[in-house]
Design brief:
heterodimer, A: 336 residues, alpha/beta, Alpha-Beta Plaits, 3-stranded mixed β-sheet, 10 helices, 11 strands, B: 406 residues, mainly alpha, Formate dehydrogenase/DMSO reductase fold, 14 helices, 72% helix
């Protein structure tokens, strides 16, 4: 083990064996309305820490120093709690572990952010049906930005080619392989609509998915148990499951990541569009909106009266998909 | 008393591991199927759920189908429990212990199927209250966790108390166990209703989003469950000295008949609703019964199921036919199979086809899924056989604690 890594490891171990930090102040960036569960979890986290401490020496007895380090990281990662219930220090610790893990396992340098929601921001999206020509540049950008599995060709966005004269969901075809735009057709993009009343969040048995203050519905990939109840509950088919170990070649990995966004996933967990949380919380556009060559996509802050999205909502005749379900999507369609 | 418990466990183990050639062959065969299932599962655990036929479009398949069906089988034990313990029906009293054995085995299978379907079973502790995050009461799945584990506990404790009392040559004290029996009756109804609500609560899936879901689950369960119990009784009657009266079989078959008839009426209601005015919400039903846009994979399943259902219900509706065991037993097999298909390929799978965005992707289980499924069924049969093997000698008075009067 190199000197630097060793020093890091020792400081890390010291932190490890230091006084068990309960779930104290600054615990949540937002209220989850479950104070009782929180208190119980504080106790649970301390107990699981004790279990790790009991087992870690066993892992430290065998293998090379790097293997030992990885084993310790894996143990600590396994027993960490739901992201929503972590305090700032626990969040910093898991980021440090994850970044180190990718370095050790894949020789990959990534930067994982835990940036919280920006104040007075509620994200919304508008899609101009008159402008979209079905080029699917948005899909390509999304895959690259969000480190989606290359082997299964996972895509969050679907562009449906629909014949003029029908808005029915059944009339769309997302598997077109010809020159676009096709005569007599229009194009309609779907992705996660970040519902204000999301069915996927209600059904999750472990609270591994939730709506953030800025309206983005996120998943804690390390807390998801892979039951896929959310996938059955989503009326917009927005959620994807990692049926196998996802693969992204090192040279294609986007290293600018967010814990709740495009960090690397593992097999057996759900994932979905997060309006590119790693970009949008830095004030940037989602990759799909930036990549669109036709200007069909408008992204912005619904709480800002001067935003373009507010202009569209005020001046265009907009509609949302399946409004009758009361899911309140924050994704509107309109026509010029 | 603690010593007696040790004797009990020792005697139970001895009863479960000793037997004739036939018994060992049976248990050996089950073990072989279980091992094959374990091997298949090891592949799935290593590679991920991608080795199954499931996709992002059809994201639940054979596992959740079997889970749904078996919750019903477990719930059906109540059809024996209530008459025996509360109404003091002596005919059912001999059979009730076996009914509870079926319930225990079925719940064990349910839990296995849920585990097999999970992407991260090793992270299952995340939903244990206190140490994990239990999203109750919002998530119907957390309700299901509560009711299934509670039902398992009830169906282990009540028969254990009664058997252990008999083992010690004492009469069980009704004031101690009857309250739990009454609780278990309500609990049985709840496990199947909660499982129905798991699906019925999803607005994304119009095929499931129906008020009839719960009642239909109960009706089909009270047909399929007792049908299995009746077949088990038939086997035990022919293979052991445990006497099952004809009246027990007769009463049980009447329960099955009424439930099967109600189930068929409800099928009619659903078919009417979907096909009198087929809307876009009827797409799953259209696909299931007749095929949709050139896709027909489920048609043979549902029509086979309906044919079996109608024939079995027909046989059982005619009094003289139902009383003839040569017709009754095959009718029970038909009914059980019909409802198994109905709950899986006829309910869970078509709920996903087409997708909420209208895309049509079909589903076919892989050999790994089939092997794991068979393995879990073998586990259930294994558990049931062991339970019966221990319960029968005690109930026959053959097995008693050392030092007690025979």
């Amino acid at each position: 083990m190199s000197g630097g890594a060793k020093a890091w490891f020792q400081s890390w171990l010291r932190k490890w064996n230091g006084p068990a930090g309960g779930c104290g102040a600054g615990l949540l960036s937002k209220s989850i309305g479950r104070r009782d569960a929180l208190k119980m979890l504080g106790g649970g986290a301390a107990a699981s820490g004790a279990v790790v401490n009991a087992f870690a020496p066993v892992n430290l007895l065998s293998g090379s120093s790097e293997e030992r380090e990885k084993a310790v990281i894996d143990w600590k990662e396994f027993f960490k709690t739901n992201y929503r219930l972590m305090n700032d220090r626990e969040r910093a610790d898991t980021i440090e572990r994850l970044e180190r893990k990718y370095k050790l396992e894949r020789n990959l340098d990534v930067k994982i952010s835990t940036a919280g929601p920006l104040p007075n921001v509620l994200y919304g999206y508008a899609f101009n049906l008159s402008k979209c020509k079905g080029y699917r540049e948005c899909i390509r950008a999304c895959i690259q930005e969000n480190n989606q599995d290359r082997a299964s060709n996972m895509q969050y966005i679907r562009i449906f080619e629909k014949p003029m004269g029908s808005m029915s969901v059944e009339s769309g075809d997302a598997r077109y392989y010809h020159e676009v735009p096709a005569e007599g057709h229009f194009y309609m993009g779907t992705q996660c609509f970040q519902c204000d009343n999301p069915p996927c969040v209600r059904v999750c048995p472990t609270g591994a998915t939730w709506k953030e203050q800025d309206g983005i519905v996120v998943i804690d990939y390390d807390w998801c148990i892979g039951c896929r109840y959310c996938q059955a509950a989503c009326p917009y088919w927005a959620r994807r499951f990692n049926w196998k170990e996802p693969t992204v070649p090192n040279e294609e990995v986007n290293p600018n990541q967010h814990y709740l966004g495009n960090r690397l996933r593992k097999k057996g967990v759900m994932e979905k569009c997060t309006y590119c949380i790693q970009r949008t919380r830095q004030g940037r556009l989602p990759a799909c909106a930036e990549a669109c060559p036709t200007g069909a996509r408008t992204f912005g802050n619904l709480l800002d009266p001067g935003s373009e999205i507010r202009y569209i909502l005020a001046h265009k005749k907009v509609f949302r998909l399946k409004e009758d379900l009361n899911t309140e999507p924050k994704f509107w369609y309109y026509m010029d | 008393m603690p010593m007696t418990l040790i004797y009990f466990l020792r005697d139970a183990l001895r009863e479960a591991t000793s037997g004739g050639r036939k018994y060992h062959l049976w248990m050996g065969a089950l073990t072989l199927v279980m091992l094959t299932g374990a091997y298949a599962y090891s592949i799935q655990f290593r590679e991920g759920l991608g080795v199954t036929g499931m996709t992002d479009h059809v994201s639940w398949g054979l596992y959740i189908s079997n889970f749904t069906f078996l919750v019903g089988v477990a719930a059906a034990a109540v059809m024996l429990v209530m008459p025996a313990y509360i109404l003091h029906d002596v005919d059912f009293k001999r059979a009730v212990m076996l009914g509870e054995g079926v319930a225990v085995s079925a719940v064990v299978m349910c839990l296995c199927f849920v585990m097999a379907d999970m992407g991260g079973p090793h992270r299952g502790w995340h939903l244990i209250p206190v140490i994990g995050y239990f999203n109750w009461p919002q998530s119907m799945l957390t309700w299901d966790v509560i009711v299934l584990n509670g039902y398992l506990a009830l169906n282990l404790l009540i028969p254990f108390y009664i058997l252990f009392s008999h083992y010690r040559n004492r009469d069980p004290n009704p004031t101690l166990y009857v309250p739990f029996v009454i609780l278990s009756v309500f609990w049985a109804v709840s496990i199947h209703l909660v499982t129905a609500f798991l699906y019925a609560g999803l607005v994304a899936r119009p095929f499931w989003n129906s008020a009839l879901m719960g009642p239909r689950f109960l009706a089909s369960a009270f047909a399929a469950g007792p049908a299995l119990i009746l077949l088990a009784l038939a086997v035990i009657r022919s293979q052991t000295s445990f006497a099952i009266e004809d009246t027990t079989i007769r009463k049980l078959s009447l329960v099955i008949t009424v439930a099967a008839q109600i189930n068929l009426i409800m099928l009619g209601c659903e078919v009417f609703k979907e096909f009198y005015w087929p809307s876009e919400h009827s797409a799953s039903a259209v696909y299931l019964f007749f095929g949709h846009h050139g896709h027909h994979a489920l048609n043979p399943w549902i029509w086979t199921s309906i044919a079996m259902n109608v024939v079995a219900t027909g046989i059982m509706t005619v009094h003289s036919a139902r009383r003839c065991h040569h017709l009754l037993y095959p009718a029970c097999v038909l009914l059980f199979t019909a409802i198994w298909i109905e709950k899986g390929m006829g309910l869970i799978v078509p709920g996903f086809i087409p997708s909420p965005l209208g895309e049509l992707v079909e589903y076919m289980p892989t050999w790994i899924e089939v092997a794991v499924t068979l393995g879990i069924w073998a586990t259930g049969l294994f558990v049931f056989t062991v339970l019966v093997r221990v319960a029968l000698p005690i109930e026959l008075g053959r097995l008693r604690a050392p030092g007690t009067n025979r």
